[in-house]
Amino acid sequence: MIGDDIDGVVRKLNEGLLQEKYAGREVHLIPIHTPSFVASMVSGYDVAVREFVSYFAKKDTPNGTINLFTGWVNPGDVTALKHLLSEMQIDATVLFETERFDSPLMPDGNHVSQGSTPIADLTGTANALGSIVLNRYEGGQAAKFLEKEYQVPSITVPTPIGIRNTDIFLQNLKNLNGKPIPRSLVRERGLAIDALTDLTHLFFADKKVAIYGNPDLVIGLAEFCLDLEMKPLLLLLGDENPQYKNDPRIKDLQGKVDFDMQVITNADLWELENRIKNEGLELDLILGHSKGRFVSIDYNIPMFRLAFPLTTVLECIAILLSDIQARSGSPNRWQTRSLPIWNTKKRRSGFSMSGKKAYPLRLGQISRDFAQAPGLWRHSAQENVCGADFFRIHAWW
Fold first, then answer.
1. Is the same domain home to 338 and 251?
2. DSSP state string for 170-196
3. More confident residue, 378 or 139
């Protein structure tokens, strides 16, 4: 709220109304100042994490844990990180624990998603062995606060996408905790390298890529693309931050390539479309969140969707259900035809059924429809790019 005394309002609620209305319950209101006219959602997330940690952290006896500031990642990424921690038998406080946000749609009703980072874990951040920051612009301030106020050492590592950066992440875990990297993770690493050896030179080499999104993710993906012999020609960082110009990772990226790598800050998807449409940018692949799908469809460029927001699965399920409900003849016959994800000429009109009427979606029929449908649907390459998105690639290892 612009112009309001947020701190005063929160203080009055904490001291009065909450104690009266919720007597006997532990309720916390935390003022977080993220006005819309300052910076972006990236810096806003960074501030919010710092305020949560600074509000709850309290010095006590050392607890032997590690604070892991993941940054703005999806629940599946948290699952992958927790797998690495589990294999190394490391007790870590994951900030924030969002794995349960990937909740199912159950036959008996929707499951309400809840985060699972308890207050006790936030309080214990001041007593950890150290902090590891995976995205310096999304959680770095909280780690610096703990280091300054409670002498908790912090390490900022490259975003652990790909073999090289994951090696660095695990090595820092080992240095902080003292536990060795187990044979199981060495084997997973070897399997990943074997797969990349089979694919990289034949299929990935020299493919031209554009990447957009939050800065830490874009930089990490660009490093991964270079390891795959691909050419990330265009990096679009979605907000403006004076620190980006001096980010050593960006300078290192541009210094190690023999082609013109453009890094654009405060960029949106207009920048991507303009370069394709008006400046002759030729691409083999687009990497980014789901909001870039229209550029992919309009210019027939393959796209792999990742990061927030990721709505591919919902879109594909909606298309599938619409097609399933377009029945002809008996109830056991199913009409199969090519469908575009979206009517690109009327993007606000809803799902397009190849120019025909879109059938209403009844999500309660998911289980029955999936069970009765003899197969999925076919796609037209010029209309639909969602088929490959059923396969989730974990680029960690």
1. no
2. HHHHHHHH-PPPPHHHHHHHHHHHHHH
3. 139
Helices (H), the chain: 6-12, 18-21, 41-56, 75-87, 119-123, 140-150, 162-177, 183-199, 215-227, 248-255, 269-277, 293-298, 312-325, 366-372
345 and 393: one domain? yes
Are 91 and 228 members of one domain? no
Q: Are residues 44 and 169 in the same domain?
A: yes
Q: Reduced to 3 states, what is the DSSP secondary structure of residue 110? A: strand
Categorize the per-residue pLDDT at 127 as very low, low, confident or very high, splitting at 50, 70 and 90: very high
Confidence of residue 360 (pLDDT cuts 50, 70, 90): very low
pLDDT (tens digit per residue) in 238-265: 877 878 878 888 888 888 888 989 998 8
Q: Are residues 330 and 376 in the same domain?
A: yes
The residue segments making up the domain with residue 372 are 311-397
Least confident of 70-84, 118-132, 326-340, 378-392: 378-392
Q: How many CB atoms lie within 10 A of CB 116?
A: 13
Share of the chain above pLDDT 90, in %: 34
Block residue for tokens 């985060």: 115
Asked whether residue 197 is assigned to any structural domain, the reply reads no
pLDDT of amino acid 111: 65
Query: In 102-247, where does DSSP find H-type helix?
Result: 119-123, 140-150, 162-177, 183-199, 215-227
Strand partners, 131: 67, 154
Helices 162-177 and 183-199 pack at an angle, to 10 degrees, of: 170
Whether residues 24 and 45 fall in one domain: no
